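Notebook B, p. 112. Complex prediction, attempt 2.
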Amino acid sequence: MITNPIGVLALSKREIVRFLSVASQTVFPPLMASLLFMYIFGVAIGSRIDFSATGLSYLGFIVPGLMTMHLISSAYENTTSSLFIARWHNHIQEVLLSPLSYFEMVLGLLAGGVARGVIVCLGVYGVSWLFTALPVQHPFLLLFFIVTISVIFSCAGMMGALWAEDFNMLSVWSIYVIVPLVLMGGVFHPMTMLPEAVRHISRFNPMHYLVNGMRYSVTGVSDSPLLVCALISLALALGTFFATVYMFRVGYKLRT
Amino acid sequence: MRDSERAISIKGLTKYYGKLQALDNISLDIKRGDFFGFLGPNGAGKTTTINVLTGLSNFQKGEVKVFGYDTTREYTRTRRLIGLCAQEFNFDPFLTIHQLLAYQAGYFGIPPREAAQRSDELLERFQLIEKRNVKHRALSGGMKKRLLMCRALIHDPEILILDEPTAGCDLELKFLIWDYLAQLNKEGKTIFLTTHYMEEAEKLCKTIGIINHGRIVRIGDRQTLLKDKSLEAVFMEVTGLE
């Protein structure tokens, strides 16, 4: 399906260089935020929480949650800002006029989001070693979840960037949908801590399965069956990817 | 004419923006190696036609082919054959001029080393080589025009489409662009040029088409079209402008 590999690599390189050249704004802030979360919630407060029922320390519990949270926000922000700015300045035409297929265009733009998500996610994991030794229990599963989750939110970011007409609209999905769902998805708490009614509602929150898939990969502990988490993650990755390719194919807000 | 001899073939092209009809059943054949001038008042449909040709606009009816390849079904082939020099300076503000051209070449499948070489050749040719490591915002208007040309030519396209390339240029730059376009055409490139300057079309173009209200109202080779009249007179006559 890739007939122009040099083209895809060129676009991927451009997207990756773009965020790396401003790493102080794109890579280091989530690492700093994680450091503070881990210290305040994990060490200062978490050491006073009895979490023995889960088989983990509270710090060990929130590390995979923080990895997921920053993986999601980094992947989403990268493609959103890159594509929206390209539309805003209209230099998206450089890509649209090229012989890249729509599939290849999405692949190239995706590379930046996935690379940023992966770097930040692994960076957060690295930071956690300052506080606790947390060896990864299932590395291949972790790789699977990191890749699928970064694909989901890189594609969601592209869809958001195509939908948005101005900078205000650009942040709507992130502020009002993604961040609340991620936080309610179990970054800082297990399902068992929630009231019965909220627990049932949480079962319909897809972020819950993504967070728990990551948590199982790192710690071997999860609130939900692993297979369900993996299938939801894979289905969402494929669904958002092909939906984005479709938007490029029909030229949604790209062609007049 | 064989399909491979038709650089551009448009049949029954109709395009709407909402309820506004921008192109009304236009048909057009441009042969390989032609220098085609596309004239018309503002809003007549020149840029829309270009956007359809390059794939920047969808259309409702008709068929558009480039060297026999359909621009919708075989877009990856047709886009390789076309270089577009647009009206606006739509460059990525974060890239240097050299990076901008190198990435653009990359999208067209040109390996990095060759891309760098082509980029430098074009920058040299358009007298921009000293600016290769600056961002486009540091360039004057004339330099940006030349950069647009470099970007359009980076993949050595068969067809060069120029949307008012000399608008706002000083005389020196205008003559530089004219000379360069004439040379490219002599080398075999097909050129599709829109302009408001009659003198430019008369001087450069072998074939001229005039569009008004989304319809092609006159088309033909320059000699036949002009006969004993100036292009300006023909333009006024067919567009109804005084």
